[in-house]
């Protein structure tokens, strides 16, 4: 069935997640949705599957306008979703999971296990899965569990199957198997909607693409008419004026030296998230780190900040002294600061006011609170960073994204850091706040701060950085000075393999 | 801004208004309520719950829970009585240490602190949910109490301890003094110290607090330790009041403490609430119990009434939050 979205808009307080998006998903094809974090992919999926019943615009299935008030209604209309995190109950058997919520009954309301097992067996055979219907799901491998999810979609006679990064946890053979099944589903005329960040995979399996960026549809077409570079450009490129980077004469003094950094995978033995990473950061420098999602950029900052002491190995020198950090506390003491990617979950205590958030890392200097000092500190940053708020006692919950980000920055500046880590500092904030932040960063490095900037926006990284490292699959794959870096170089280095 | 500020103010005064209306209602129905002796009686009765509930407030502000306080209260109370009455004998060294009343009390507080620290250690070191860790301590400490007392009350503890339970100082009952000091100390800690701010920060967003360089585990350890020590102070008060340590003292006191915390407006999900709110919550429960006794209502109905008040408090709190 043809699934169509017409002029879909969806707003959350402070941010427009989807802005007038129109697109089609064709039957008998694999339709891929591309976009970076925060582009609006998951919001779109949630609207299509009835998780968000409130939105503007309309959803059409074979030309008929539908409005799903709940997940159940979407299911009944024939739309099934396979989540990135599996939605199976590990203790129940395969068959029990497949029929969860719509069990077959015999007379007297007793469960008809025989019939359920028989149907389960049939659908498992169709997927060429050699599993008994009575196997508890927790005994299955992740790849098999993924296929059980697909089996569930098949059992409900879903015509549209949405898959959210289904291969992120699969081995190569499991991926091949999944692709084979997807081709079968295509042949049966099902509409497949597919989300993945693995480019090579998309070119093998997908027929049609749609790219979202900042809630807007920026490109759509047939896979055969496009290239990898073109798709990435659509995803990360932004029509922002790129100001020429003025090279400031900076000192050659190395503030931070990182050598041979390795980070083990948290669950998979022998696998490494980061491998063999070495670089230097100079005083007054903005060192950009570019890479696609999953390249290991955030993990690199986290490791240096003392968040993975158990599974990392590295040699680190701060201003010439060897250091190892077992906690953020130790890292902060040596002059590190970390503006994290997710300011709501990691940066701020939303239920506390601006002043309390700013003073949090420096409270330990005295056992007693000093309300006067706290207030003055907050005032000075509210002025300096132009935080728009009626008072420094305003709760952070009530600030806009850009202003929240400024409070996070103020919090870290109050520790008088030597080195500032910034992970996607402008994600989800408006253009004006973004440019204010750029100006601030330039000011800070002029005053001698060194910044390690992680960003997946090419214009941003080209505008701000003095030097750019590119990462792919946990390694450094490129090292450019700002004069030699351009979009093509960065993209080429960022592609895995 | 004014909106949220007023809301906070309103939320705080809501429980005060409720307390006031409750007092008014009971005063209208019974002329015995507003007598001096009865009011002192109410304050003395709530003093134990106030001590425990203040500790519980800190724990709940951190989005934790401490179910062990009733048992910790019983064990520390028994230790207090045992030390005063029997002292401490090192048979191998042929050494006997006797305890003064103060020594017994300090010993009890130390035991409470250690049990609380053990809770905190299990919770932080092994990442056990607080509910489970302190549930285990609930039965462990109760069992230790039975072992220590052999299931028999330890009685006749002398006039010194009796004074703490039943005496008056400057026209105010001694237990009321003690709970007043506890409240003042912990209002100060929660509002004026970095430690207090960290408690709120951890309850508000543990991850952000950790990333800001706060030693989360140390704060948690300290808070559970303090909760245990405050339960021990409650244990001393109970023992002193009866001039006897009962092996089954403090049963279900943890529930009264949690009720006071919740009625006082502290959110069970952490980050929001106050010690003063809890004091008001404890007062509401105390006045309600007292009033129902004065009105000759069956004690069974008292339990029902307390439950209804808890429900009302939480529902009103939820509705406030939705508006905000």
UniProtKB/TrEMBL annotation, chain A:
PROSITE patterns: ABC_TRANSPORTER_1 (PS00211), ABC_TRANSPORTER_2 (PS50893). Residues 3-239, 256-496 form the ABC transporter domain. GO terms for cellular component: plasma membrane. Gene3D superfamilies: P-loop containing nucleotide triphosphate hydrolases. It is a peripheral membrane protein. GO terms for molecular function: ATP binding; ATP hydrolysis activity. This is D-xylose ABC transporter ATP-binding protein. The lineage of its organism: Bacteria, Pseudomonadati, Bacteroidota, Saprospiria, Saprospirales.
Automatic annotation (TrEMBL), chain B:
GO terms for cellular component: plasma membrane. It is found in: Cell membrane. GO terms for molecular function: transmembrane transporter activity. Its main location: membrane. This is Ribose ABC transporter permease. Coiled coil: none annotated. Keywords: Cell membrane, Membrane, Transmembrane, Transmembrane helix. It comes from Flavilitoribacter nigricans (strain ATCC 23147 / DSM 23189 / NBRC 102662 / NCIMB 1420 / SS-2). The chain crosses the membrane at residues 46-65, 72-90, 96-119, 126-148, 168-189, 221-242. It is a multi-pass membrane protein. InterPro entries: ABC_transp_permease (IPR001851).
